[in-house]
Every structure is written in C-alpha cells, then in structure tokens.
Specification:
This protein is α/β, with parallel strands linked by helices. It is about 35% helix and about 20% strand. It is built from 24 helices and 20 strands. The strands form 4 sheets. The protein has a 6-stranded mixed β-sheet with strand order 6-7-8-3-9-10, with helices on both faces. It has a 6-stranded mixed β-sheet with strand order 16-17-18-13-19-20, with helices on both faces. Strands 2-1-4-5 form a 4-stranded antiparallel β-sheet. Helix 19 links the parallel strand 17 and strand 18. Helix 4 crosses helix 5. It is globular and about 65 Å long.
Amino acid sequence: MIKIKDLSFTYPGQQTPSLKDINLEINRGDFLAVMGGNGSGKSTLCKALNGLIPHFFDGDYSGEVEVCGLNTLHSGISELAMKIGYVYQDFENQIVRPTVLDDASFACLNYAMPDYEVRGRKALEMTGLEGRAGDYIWQLSGGLKHLLALSGTISLSPDILILDEPIAQLDPYHAKKIYNTLRSLNENYGKTIIVIEHHTDFIAEYCKNVVMLQEGQVLWKKTVKEALNRVEELESCSIFPPQVSQAAKYLRDRNILTEQAELPIQLEEAYKLFSVLPRYLDKKADKTLVAVSDRTAGDEILRFQNVSVSYRAVKGEARSILRGFNCSIKKGEKIALIGSNGAGKSTILKLAAGLLKPLAGTITLGNRQINELSAEAVSRKISLVYQNPEEMFIKDTICGDIEYAMKARGLENYAERTKELLAQFNLDILAYRDGRLLSGGQMRRASLAIGVALTPSVLLLDEPTANLDIATRKQITQTLTTLENQVETVIIATHDMQLVTEWANRIIVLYDGNIIADGTREEIFQDVAVRERVGILPPEIYQMGQLLSPPIECFQVQEFADYFIPA
C-alpha cells in the first residue's frame, strides 16, 4: 500500500533535515498512529505521502515514496489526491467555499463527478454535520470547521486517509464521532487510516499499530499494545502514555504488581487489574472545596451583563450564540471555559478583547465599558492568543512578531523584553524563523510570547495546548503559572481536561450560550448531570477512580496509585 525507501528531506534554510533515511511500509487496511514530539517530522512525513513534498514544498529531497503503486515523485498531486486524502493540522486553509455543503462537495465537483452533491451530503452525515448543510463557514466554531475539512476529504472516497491531529480542537462528543467514523471507514470499507496523534487514550482504543518518530527518524513500528507499554520511552519522546498505564507502571516499579505484569492501556482492562488490588488508603485525603463566593474575593476586573450575540446570515435568520449572558471575572482568577464545540467559548473571548460587538448588553473592563474605549486602550489591558496560532504572525521572523506591538507603542525597552520572552518560551534558536513555517507546538509557544509581550492585565487563550506534545504542554502549564506575577487574570477556552484539572481554580461550563455550572474541579466533575449534558470527559485516571468501589476521587496518577501502596 505505502512503501518508503531511504527518504530524506530538508526545508530551505534549515541546517538539519526534517526527515533522515526513512524506511517504512504501511499495509492496506492498517489503522496507524504516528507519534513523536513537536518538530520530530510527523507532519513532514505525511506531506511526503501525498506528494506535497516535493511538488509543493521546496527543499532537498532524496529517496522514494510509493503509494498505491504510484511513485509520488513522478505522479501529480491531483492524481495522488484520488488515492490518499489529507486533513491538515491547519485545516482551515483547505476550506474554500462559502457554505458547508458547497465545501463538502467541492472536491468531487472539481473532479467532475456527477453525484458530487450526494457525496457531499453523505460525508456531512458521517461527520455529524448533516444539520448544518446550509450554514455559512463563518458561522462554524473551530471544531466544527475541523469536521467540515474531514467531510471534504471523505467525499472523494480515497483508499488512504491521513489526519494531522484530528481531535485537537474537538469536544469529547465530536472527537468520538471522528474516531468512530474513521473506525467504520477502516473496518467496513477497508480504508487505510493514518493519524498524527498525541492522545494515547484514543490511540489505545482505535489504532492497530504505532510508528514512533524522533528527530526525523523512525525509532520503531509496533502494535498498539507493545507501543503503549513502553511508558518510559514514550515519556522520553514527549508523549503522554495512557494514565492507567502510568499508574500500573508506578505500582510495578514498587513491587505492588509483578515484574512480568503487562500494563493496561484501556479503562476496561485497567479496572480488572486495579479492582482486585488491596487498597491501603481507605480515607480520601482532605480536600477543601473552595466555594465560589470565597474564591472570588478579588476586585472585579471584567463583567458581562445581559450580553447577546448573533451571527448574521446572508439569508435566513441570524444564528444566536449568546442570549442574556452574565458573568463576573475577578482579579487573580485562573478560569477555564469548557463546553462543546459551538457553545460560545471563543465568542466570549473575542467579546472580551473587543473584537466582537454585542447585539445587546454591556461588557465592562474595570470601571469603563469596552465600547467606550479605543482598540489600543483595550489591547493594553487585554490580550487574546488565537485558536489558530498562525494568525498571530505578521512579520517574517518570530523576533519581529514579538517586538512588533511594543515597537508600535514606542516602548523603549522592547529589544530587551523581546530577548527575555525568547528565552522564557524556549524560542532562542527559532528567533529568526518565519512563524508560519514552524511546527504546531513551536507556533503555540511563539503565539503565547506575542500575547504576553505587553504584559496585559487579562490574558485570553483559545485552546492553548492543542497539537502539543507532553514536554510543550507541561511548559505551557508552567508558563501559565509563572505568569501570575505578570498577568492579573488568565482565561482559557479549552477541551484539555488535564490542563483544566492541573491549572484552573475556577471552571465555567457553557452550554448553548449559557453558563450551566461554575465551580472548582471537584464541584464540576462530581456533577454527573452536567458532565453528561455537555459531554465533559474527565481525565482518564479520574474515570478509573470513579469505576472502583468505593470510588476514588483523584486527578493525578501518583495520587491514584498511592491508594494501593502500604503506608
């Protein structure tokens, strides 16, 4: 199906190759996960499979890639696209038509397929977008656009599907929908599926084999069970192993489990293992639940009062996003906005930054309404780091992007401040690289540096850990903690429940444009009705603890494992 022989590739201006002597075979019908840290060459490898490298991206190319009997070096991109479909990490760039159905069927229309619209509707049905066929693209959230990009690829019915971080910006319901669709395509239609994925819990449940990349080279290819049992090696390559695997490894290292014990990689098998182990810590450690009234003792910094927002449609009724929304934000709070795709998370951030105007209601920053302030005045107090980090780059270098706002406002120490930020976000060696040509994780770090350059009072982050490996995610979390001395309040919109449980001191749950829950992590995750209504999926180790009888409530792997270790 896919044969790669001695493949190497180096981007222009880059000293080290992104791919080095790759030799790999992928069999027909495989469901393969490609893993590796940010910058390990995952996306570059997949772009070599569909001919974008070397036909679209210039660079030093050597070796051979054969896909479905076609040599990619001698076959055109349009010919290869009929065999191998690709949903990119920057998926919005492959959405080209104004309405959902237009875009889902566009590729088929482009190939002059008479049933192009039927194919488009079928693809929308498979991804759960059948009810949005007539919607305009700008009415969709980032997660729904991701589903649309998959729809456009599926409509061509290629033999091979490649998805680069397919669930990075999706809520748990749509993430499951994506992977169940991919499983159906794999098992019922014989499609070969290749995913670039950091979420090992999804790899454990859906994939068959795993390829590990490091510094542009293939370390190994193994079955999912073998791959995810290599906990230490995964962590050394900046990959989060499944939390149940980490817990079992922790217990095996302390002789609670036998040396030969195979590590579980899914909840069901982990339950069978942990449920029969003696538990030595029967009493949960004291955890003070912080009441909302106690937690919000700081001065109010931002207030939404009866705010309503609708997106106008060219035809038909406007689509309402927020209706009479009310919320008070205090200084010093670390807030996580969670909810399904389209619940209004990104809209709230854009309203706070002054990028959107409410249809009704008021937004107050300090003691002034935002609509009374100039854009420059708002930007000095509030900074928004976008969901798509490439939108933060306007200069040709990261250094230029970071210093741009400071230079524009005449800050005298902008050069020194830029140097500090480059070091803080581990961007020194990337300082003179174009931000749009960096890996996803590098883009995230650079966009965050741009966002905090002016030391805003309120920092807004839209999906700050999407597409990131374990090392970069930890770095972002640590950076958010260190920013407490520089930024008064931080608000993030995210689907990353691990980030939520490790960092936030207040969680706001949105559903259909309204707040349905507001509290600490313990208060939110204990509310099963809210979790089911919104589709919140707690961290895997929390789920594991809740399955046991009596249940364990914990959010960290070591905290869970300590219940089974004698005092």
